[in-house]
TrEMBL record:
GO terms for molecular function: DNA binding. Residues 10-70 form the HTH tetR-type domain. Residues 33-52 bind DNA. It comes from Geobacter metallireducens (strain ATCC 53774 / DSM 7210 / GS-15). Coiled coil: none annotated. Keywords: DNA-binding. It comes from the Bacteria. Pfam families: TetR_C_4 (PF08359), TetR_N (PF00440). This is Transcriptional regulator, TetR family. SUPFAM superfamilies: Homeodomain-like, Tetracyclin repressor-like, C-terminal domain.
Length: 200
């Protein structure tokens, strides 16, 4: 049997993190054991512990990956000059990202992360606040340019924006992924945008 190529530490950590997110998507956090994650990564469980201290640290890496990916969504839309169009792109990319990674809501919306583990909870809060500030900044830019409704608090609108995405994702999970999340996003955006545009 051909020996598996030895990967650099950072590459291996990324592979383990991505494998953990996939397993959480199918089996939930409780089903994502270190043995399962190691197997999905193509390494032994003992080798896994050379890269992570344990499951909590792997979950922390998963949460950081989600935060980094959300930051990349903000960056990908940064070249769109029109604020409303930029927000729409972020909104739809966010929903598509969740649709492609079922493990995201199954990681974030769990008691183990949000209630029982302060370290993981703080990681979620920190990553979410970075994303929140990015959304709020786009809204403020649109208001300053006169393209978005200045009567609305930008932080309140950012909360509504993220809350709409998160509740839609949670409902999608509870409905066992019976609908296409990106299609629902089209309908939701048409409704949400009415609170953003300037009143004539």
């Amino acid at each position: 049997m051909k020996p598996r190529k030895k990967e650099p530490t950072e590459v291996r950590r990324q592979q383990i993190t991505e494998a953990a997110l996939r397993i959480i998507g199918t089996k939930g956090i409780s089903g994502a054991t270190t043995a399962e994650i190691a197997s999905a990564s193509g390494i032994s469980e003992g080798n896994l512990y050379r890269h992570f201290k344990g499951k909590e640290e792997i979950l922390g890496s998963v949460i950081d990956k989600i935060g980094n990916d959300l930051a990349s969504i903000l960056d990908a839309a940064a070249d769109i000059a029109e604020p409303l169009r930029r927000l729409e792109e972020i909104f739809k990319r966010h929903l598509s990202y969740i649709e492609e990674h079922v493990g995201i809501p199954r990681t974030i919306f769990t008691e183990e992360v949000l209630v029982l583990n302060e370290t993981l909870r703080e990681k979620v809060r920190g990553n979410l606040m970075h994303y929140f500030r990015g959304i709020s900044a786009v809204i403020e830019q649109g208001q300053e340019a006169g393209a978005l409704n200045r009567e609305m608090d930008p932080n309140a609108l950012a909360t509504m924006f993220i809350g709409t995405v998160n509740f839609t994702a949670l409902r999608w999970v509870m409905n066992k992924f019976s609908s296409k999340l990106s299609d629902e996003g089209e309908r939701l955006w048409e409704t949400f945008v009415k609170s953003l545009v300037c009143k004539v």
